[in-house]
Fold this protein.
Amino acid sequence: MKHLEDKITQATTLELLEKVRIELFGKKGAIASEFAKLKDVPGPEKKAFAEGLNKNKTKLQKFYDEKYEILKKEEIEKILQSEAIDVSLYGNLESKGALHPVMATMDKIIDYFVALNFAIEDGPKIEDDFHNFEALNLPKNHPARDMQDTFFCGDGAVLRTHTSPVQIRTMLKQKPPIRMIAPGAVFRKDYDITHTPMFHQVEGLVVDDKGEVSFANLKSIMSDFLHYMFGEVEIRFRPSFFPFTEPSAEVDISCIFCEAKGCRICSHTGWLEVLGCGIVDSNVFEAVEYKNMSGYAFGLGVERFAMLLHKIPDLRMLFEGDRRLLEQFR
Amino acid sequence: MIVTRTWLNTFIDMRKVSDDKLYKTLNAIGLEVDSIKTYTIPPKVVVGELISCEKHPNADKLNICQIDIGGEIKQIVCGASNVVHAKYLAVATIGAKLGDDFEIKHAELRGVKSEGMVCSASELGLPALGDGILILDETIGKLKLGEELNNYKKLADTVIEIELTANRGDCLSIYGIARDLSAALQLSFKAVEYESQNLEKIGLARVAELKTPLPIKGSLKYVMADIEHICKSLIISIRLAFIGEQTVTILEDVTKYVTHTTGVILRAYKTRNFLLKEEDKISITASTKDAITTIKANGQDFSILGVSQNEDAKADDKTVKVLFEASYINPDILVNAVAEQSLKTDKLYYNTSRGSEPCLDIGITYLISLLERHSGCNFFDGSLSVEEEIEDYIITVKDTEVSGIIGKKIETIEMVKILSSLGFAIQSSSEDLFAVTVPPFRHDILNIQDITEEIVRIIGIDNIESKALRFTEKQRINETTIRYHARKALRIRATANGFDESISYAFSDKTLLQKYRFSLVKEELDIINPITEDFNTLRSTILVNLLIASKRNVSYSQKAIALFEMGTVFDTKRQEKEMFSLIFSGQKEGENISNAGKPQLINFETFTKKLSAIIGNFQLRSCTQHNALLHPYQSADIIIDNKVCGFMSKLHPTVASEFDLADTFIAEISFDALIPSHINATAISNFQGVYKDLSLVIDKNIPYHQIATSIERLELKLLKKYFPVDIYEDASLENKKSLTVRLFIQSLTGTLEDKDSETITSTIIETLQEQYGATLR
């Protein structure tokens, strides 16, 4: 027995072990030849002899199995080792692109309002005077038209100067109650460090029966929205003026660059202006022939949000497809 | 609009209002503070009185001054020429620090001792006030020799710049802002009062008359003064400097100052030499046509009310008899008329068009008090005036409606108090209704929402608690929302395939579009006032913008440029269309370990694979587009659902070199075609199918899609799919090529028999043989 066990022990590879297996357990192997001796064993001893043999066979088999497992493991380990690579070489293969930070910011803004069951609405980029100005309580020669330098087309059409005309289109097309946002590109004839001739806005409008929608409601959603966008910031509402809302407010957040201590970006005021909002002016409802309604509206510039959120230093860079900027957002 | 603390103090007592409180209050009431700056004059700069002044013996330009600085006479050498006119001046004494490294020390100038320095305004950190030293006078307060100048707060003032909204013309003056502040801070408002001390006065009516044959639009008031001498006063100079106004003549400075202080529009006119030949009477007439009021005097053009003044009639510092005109006209009427008649306007029109102060007396009284107190002026007794009769504008206010808009219960008594303090007259008619008479200076207040805004401003938005809106649920997923989600999914797939998202202006350069043979928006529909020549038309493709962006990236040494943009393009009729455009230029991947730092350039196959991973299944056909970006032999129409919806191409090498680009591929596809359509599942077969390869020898010029179309038309039920797997050409095939198409044949209802697949292959071969002379290889 001992010498048989030694044979198993001495096998160093699965190949050698297989040879030993045939030598021991094969048809002409050592075990078989032991069993062959059984026929020569006298009758009364046969049983004991057979039992002894079986016991030895089982023991040897177990010994073999154990050895097999060990060698199998070693073999796999060898294969694994042979396949070793330096994984650290393969990081950053740069196969992914990036969403544009302005578009990604717009997505983030849209996500918020869609989660609150606002519908997304859209309108043409080329607008007429009625939708872009007149219906929004911006009659001709109104000084507030000066705030929006306008691109004109030969036939008197304008490139929309804000997303607000979508409010008018939606109110004309649908019936209240309305809860909508209108994201998209707008155009103003202005081109310097802080202005580009095209930029993006997100407009919002909520309309319901008279007395249903109040300034307090507007304040509530704007505060919540700005906390969602900018985290734990202070929020300040300042009365302001927009022709299409009344009362109107501009909303500031505490400066996220200097923690409201005052810096160049917040012009040392500690505050950053981020959006405008207000209660829909009754003249706007009149223009779309809505009676006994109340509503609020708001509008914001997406580029400004993106620049503040991601600390992007230069506005114009956003429109140049500059990979040095874009690749940072992968 | 710029105000200063002490200037506001003319009308309200600012002593108990800190700068911080002032800043917060202005912002809270809708007068946004752009900047706030307090001027500080360094310590040891004191008031001095010039006792004597003589020329320096060794220097022409220097003067030796003996200056009393309060019980002590100092000898100071001064180089400014205007020192000889001075009485009181700003003296920096020994030890005063005028800058980080500029301390006044004992000095000797060309042998003469000098114990200090006589300062100019800018040397003290104040805005510059012309050449020479700062000459003090008592308009900044009673001057006390030796007193530190920083204690004169009218000099060391706090200057606040306010960004005024377009509706608040009433706040284009110190008076208007003080009026708003008095309501917000509950401070009493000081009226402008002045009693002339001059007793010998001639009645104005004896020398002038004002006639209006018909009622006119607007109000006018005239006063006249004999001006013996007109003095420059420090308070006017420094305050005009604070508000960034250039000084012109002393007289114009004074009227400008009065307008900025009171909001009343003032203009000054010559009389003698211009109107009066001898000692005639001045006869002024005013008449209105098409909302424009024209004023003439003795037949000469005088002014257009609220718009402009005849330059020849303008008084200057030499004018002895000056006629002052105060005017007001409702801006809502004026601006339309001015625009329609394209009238030339002067600087004051900005104020008139936004709403100047209608109470002309305030301006006139303030003007008279300034000129009579500080200059040698004597005003004629009385004035000439005409006032437009305007009916009171009354708004009926229901208190519950105001509270409803705000979302907070505001007590009637509080509303009344706020409105009264803002100058509104209130009449209570019943318990919850009251009538509000809008003061004439608030032409912007037209309805209950405007009234509500006034109340919100004064109670402060901070004092309105946020309240969530209760609303009725409604299904709001519309077409636009679905398009948005489709667009976002597409954008994300594009980034997953290595493209960076780009955005560019919806404009293009007309010459570039023409050069590359893209369509142009019809001339009459195009932009007429482009911002630059590079953006002089509405774009009809995004690709040119992407090429420009790629070129820019190349200049930043980028070797692999993959960009996409979703945006609007415009056809010749200016119809808008949303396009999805892509560009891939240069190396097909980054330099890295997997390509030994030498990646291959992008090619047709790789670009098409990327496109497919982004937009899903499509077919390619020979290109039917005609723009000049296309490579004639590597371009294709993109077909989805049997419709051409865009194209892809290798960039024409000529164009590539124009943009400094290596091998480049482009694609532009209509977004409408990329919105996923509804899909119904088809039955799945449980029986085994077989693949068969057909190697056909066909004419070299026959594109694969013709073969595919022929197979498609056979409508073979068992043929589940087929696709090209190999193409082979060599000399032995001459004008032919070998195309291998792999067929997949499967039945939905049973196991395939050999004859089934044989029928299919033979049908296909026969057809192709007939149509294209195809043979089996």
